[in-house]
Amino acid sequence: MIFEYTKDNERLVRRLNDITTSGRISHAYLLEGDSWLDKRKFADTFAKGIMCAKGLGENCGACSMCDKIDHGNCEDMIYVEPEKSGNVINEKVEAMQEQIKTKPFGARHVVIIENADTMTKQAQNRLLKTLEEPPGDSVLILLSENMENLEQTIRSRCVKFRINHFGSENYDFMMDTAKELVDMGISRATFFAMYQKVSGFARDKEKVKALLDSMEVVYRDMLVGGAGKVTSIKTEDIVNNIHLVEIASEDIRIGVSPATAIKNLIIKIGG
Ligand SMILES: [Zn+2]
C-alpha cells in the first residue's frame, strides 16, 4: 500500500500492510495523531488496502473501489463526522449503525469516525454496542487526537496505533514560527510585523491550528522553564496568553475563519 505519510511511520505502514495482505483484519482500529495530520487520508489508504477489488492489501488506486474511495463516494464507506459544535453526537452514531446493518456492495463496510475522541458520552455508549457485536466483516476506524478522551471500554476493543508527525520539516517550521511570534509578542512587536510571519498560510485552517498548538507548547515550556531562558514576561501573562491561544483554537473550531482567529490573537498578545 502506498501511504501518504510513510516517512516517519515506516513501522506503522508495515504493520498495516501486514494486516491487509494477511487478511487478519480486526473489527476496530483506533488511530491517534495530532490535529493537523490528515488522518482521514491515512485511514482512506488503509481502507483501500482492505477493500481494493484486486485483493487484500492491493490498494491499486485504479479499480472502481479504490477510485470511489479516492473520490469520497464509495457506498461501502461510512464517514461519521463531528457537528459544528465540535462533538460527534449520538444521532450520527445511530445513523451509522443503521447503515452498517445493510448489505454492503462489496465484501464489507468500513466506517471512519473522525475526531472520535469528541464523541459525547451517549455516542460512545452507543458505539460500544457496535464494537461489541460488529455486523458482518465490517471494520471501524476511529480517528482521534487524544485517545485518552475515549472511554476505556472503547479503547480496549480497538487495535491502537499512533501516527507520528509526518513531514518533520512542516513541524519544525511551525515551531519556529510559534517561537518567533511568542518572542515578538513579549517584545511588543507591531501587529503588522507579527502578521507578516503568518500571512502566507493564515487561510489554511490546518496550518493555523498547528501553529496554535505549537504556540501553546512554547508558552507551556516557559511556564515550566523548559525553554531554558529568562523571559521578561510574568507567569500570569503566560497563563493568560495560553488562554488566548485556546480561545483562538476554539474560534476556529466553531467556524471563525483561521485568518480572523490568528489576527485577533496577534492583536491581544502583541504590542
Ligand atoms: Zn483497487
Summary?
It contains eleven helices and five strands; from the N terminus they run αβααβαβαβαβααααα.
Task: Outline the structure in words.
The chain is an alpha/beta fold and 271 residues long. The chain has helices at residues 10-22, 39-51, 64-70, 90-101, 121-132, 152-155, 168-186, 191-198, 205-223, 235-253, 258-269, and strands spanning 28-32, 77-80, 110-113, 139-144, 159-162. It folds into two domains: 10-162, Rossmann fold; 168-269, Zinc Finger, Delta Prime, domain 3. The protein is built from eleven helices and five strands; from the N terminus they run αβααβαβαβαβααααα. Strand 2, helix 4 (90-101) and strand 3 form a beta-alpha-beta unit. Helix 9 runs antiparallel to helix 10 (235-253) and helix 10 runs antiparallel to helix 11. The longest helix has 19 residues, at 168-186. It binds zinc ion (ZN). The site of zinc ion (ZN) has 8 residues, from helix 3.
